[in-house]
Write a structure and sequence with these properties.
Number of helices: 32
Radius of gyration: 29 Å
Number of strands: 11
CATH topology of the largest domain: Serine Threonine Protein Phosphatase 5, Tetratricopeptide repeat
Length: 677
């Protein structure tokens, strides 16, 4: 068996030549990366034709069969291709026959082989926000170009790129390069400046300076200044990415150079609106913000109907509008669907289109398996993208697969340790698993990253109540949070503030707190609670039953009117059931509570479904069906969710059950309900 050496710029090219010259059953004997006399990084592969007299298909798989059979092992990069291929050659006669595993396309195997660089060898880099040297109103442009450079670098196999969200925290920072590197856990930083000059004749130019710095010794590995027409902005981005890869000795695989050089649009005005939309992406979930993003992306695709990337993000924002209950109409669903379909029509391989389709299946249809498949397809191009890993974690959480959700969210947070939303969601998931010490630790970390976030502070208050039932400590946290949060009107912050007052018996303070909020209902994807309903419950605790009845009637009018518009809203049915129970309409209350559970069962959404069962338990308690209420509580304690023995002991909404022997026995239990699956 005579071997032959093949040299090429990519593994794919080398394997293609081997297949043509030696046949698809060739034996790969060695593979390594070397540099030629010009210093160019190339791939050298040693291969030999299969000797059919010595090797039989029954005894030995071909190289392609071996790779495909051991896809997970190879993709993990353990030992690299050198070890794997030598093992194939040495132990080939002992290898068991591969069964039904031969790929239909050789290209699938070639792609797999290209993806064998171990993750551990990736060189970690962060792209710091470009300093805007132009007009203040062009700040979004500087941030947008930073994000685009980050995205292009992230597609290079061999680079581990910190997300734009983490890096953006260092905008205008006075921290040293070494400190930033240590905080982000990276080896290299790319930093620079940008100026956008616009002239009276309508033309414009951009000037971008970039420098690549190795953190351990503050060495500048590469620097360059680009000064070109605005239309060359994509070529500049591609050049920067290629220069970074070259400076770090990272070879570009087949297709990567072409992908980086791609122009998402030829219309610079459309691109400007796209960047304006991106500037708002991830800022918050408010309707006003999402509506403005939609306006920007719609303007972008109006100016350039072939702008696939803008269509993908337009679909994602419509998904967010629907998911956050800002727009639950069929029209919203149709717009999200049409936008993602157009993105695929324009660019069938666009990873952002797969990401948008994943969100569409997840948020509109709760089709979790299909959603995960789309996210995984996007990762085939984008690699271990923290946003995609977190998205899979979110889906796993809705499936009730909390341990798997924790694994994905932990990985996302490890890749991007400065992103508050990843720590936020990891903490929420730990809380649902009733791992309260871990929850507090992660919440403290998230709050350190985003001190003014009212929702994070609210979760910390609630975690203490769930964990210890300690209202004094929770009140201390509330007082501290009140001094730092950006807004005290966040619906979850308000809800736990009111709950804490009620647990402490401070009903008058609870009423006064309610009077300070500007909206009429606490409204998110988990609950819709009219302010009148909270007032009714507080007045009932105070023994002011006539006032409470008036408040219940006000809440009833609000909820019945909303249900006339959106009759399938599970949150409204559950809240109306509680209102009916307060009005002593027993059969109607139970019917509404059961309908809320039917519309959103735990099997459909493990998190939102939990809330519907808890509301039904409260309804049973209020209408004196105590055993049925306790049945539901026991079930809730057996699955992941926002209920615990310490909270049951102090929450006044369970007061009707206090004298029931089963409830008293339940409260004496010391075991921790984890409810993991």
């Amino acid at each position: 068996m005579q071997s032959k050496t093949f040299r090429a710029t990519t593994t794919k090219e080398a394997l293609s030549r081997i297949s043509r010259e030696l046949g698809p059953d060739a034996i790969i004997m060695d593979q390594r990366n070397i540099r030629d006399h010009n210093g160019q990084l190339i791939v050298e592969v040693v291969a030999a034709p299969r000797d059919n007299s010595a090797f039989t298909p029954e005894a030995t798989p071909t190289f392609w069969q071996f790779i495909f059979k051991n896809k997970a092992y190879v993709a993990g990069g353990i030992g690299g291709l050198v070890v794997i291929t030598l093992l194939v050659t040495a132990a080939v006669i002992f290898w068991p026959r591969a069964e039904q595993i031969i790929p239909t396309k050789q290209e699938e195997v070639q792609t797999l082989v290209e993806e064998t660089q171990p993750v551990a060898e990736r060189k970690k880099i962060a792209v710091l926000p470009l300093e805007n040297l132009g007009l203040p109103k062009d700040e979004y442009f500087a941030d947008g170009i930073t994000d685009e450079i980050t995205a292009r670098l992230a597609r290079i196999e061999g680079l581990g790129v910190i997300s734009r969200i983490s890096a953006k925290q260092y905008k205008n920072t006075d921290k040293s390069i070494r400190t930033i590197g240590e905080e982000l856990g990276v080896d290299f930083l790319l930093e620079g400046t940008i100026r956008w000059q616009k002239f009276t004749d309508g033309s414009s130019r951009i000037r971008i300076s970039q420098q690549l710095i190795r953190i351990r010794d503050d060495t500048h590995l590469w620097a360059e200044v680009y000064e070109r027409d605005l239309n060359d902005v994509f070529a500049i981005q591609a050049s920067i990415a290629e220069q970074v890869a070259s400076s770090l000795d990272v070879a570009l695989l087949a297709g990567q150079r072409e992908a980086m050089a791609a122009r998402p649009t030829d219309n610079m005005e459309a691109y400007r609106y796209y960047l304006l939309g991106n500037a708002l992406y991830g800022r918050d979930r408010r309707k006003r913000t999402l509506s403005e993003m939609i306006r920007m992306y719609e303007k972008a695709v109006e100016l350039d109907p072939e702008f696939a990337l803008a269509f993908a993000y337009l679909s994602i924002v419509y998904n967010q509008m629907y998911w956050n209950y800002h727009d639950r109409t069929n029209q919203c669903a149709m717009k999200a669907k049409e936008a993602v379909e157009q993105a695929f029509k324009l660019n069938p391989d666009l990873p952002e289109a797969y990401m948008a389709l994943g969100f569409y299946y997840y948020r509109f249809h709760l089709n979790y398996d299909l959603a995960i498949k789309q996210f995984e397809k996007a990762m085939e191009v984008l690699g271990e993208n923290s946003e995609l890993l977190a998205s899979i974690g979110y889906v796993k959480r809705r499936q009730g697969r909390m341990k798997e959700a924790v694994n994905y969210l932990t990985k996302a947070f490890e890749l991007d340790p400065r992103v508050p939303v990843f720590a936020h969601n990891l903490a929420e998931t730990k809380l649902l698993l009733r791992n309260y010490p871990d929850t507090e630790h992660i919440l403290d970390l998230a709050i350190s990253l985003d001190p003014g976030n009212a929702e994070l502070c609210a979760w910390k208050i609630f975690n203490v109540l769930l964990w210890q039932g300690d209202t004094k400590r929770a009140h201390t946290i509330l007082e501290e949070a009140t001094q730092i949060v950006r807004s005290r009107e966040h619906e979850r912050f308000v809800r736990y503030d009111i709950l804490l007052h009620m647990c402490n018996g401070n009903c008058q303070e609870a009423l006064e707190r309610l009077s300070t909020i500007s909206y009429e209902s606490l409204n998110n994807q988990f609950f819709f609670i009219p302010k009148a309903l909270l007032m009714a419950q507080i007045n009932q605790l105070m023994g002011r039953h006539d006032i409470a009845r008036r408040d219940y009637e006000n809440a009833r009018r609000i909820l019945e009117a909303r249900l006339a518009e959106v009759p399938e809203d599970h949150r409204l049915h559950s809240s109306l059931g509680i209102v009916y129970a307060g009005l002593e309409m027993k059969s109607e209350a139970i019917e509404e509570g059961q309908l809320g559970v039917k519309l959103m069962p735990v099997s459909k959404d493990a998190w939102r479904g939990f809330h519907r069962v808890e509301d039904l338990a409260q309804i049973y308690s209020m209408v004196r069906e105590h055993d049925k209420a306790i049945d539901q509580i026991e079930y809730l304690l057996s699955i992941p969710g926002e209920l615990s023995i310490p909270l049951l002991r102090i929450d006044p909404k369970w007061d009707p059950l206090r004298n029931h022997p089963r409830f008293q026995k339940l409260l004496k239990e010391e075991k921790q309900y984890v409810g993991d699956r």
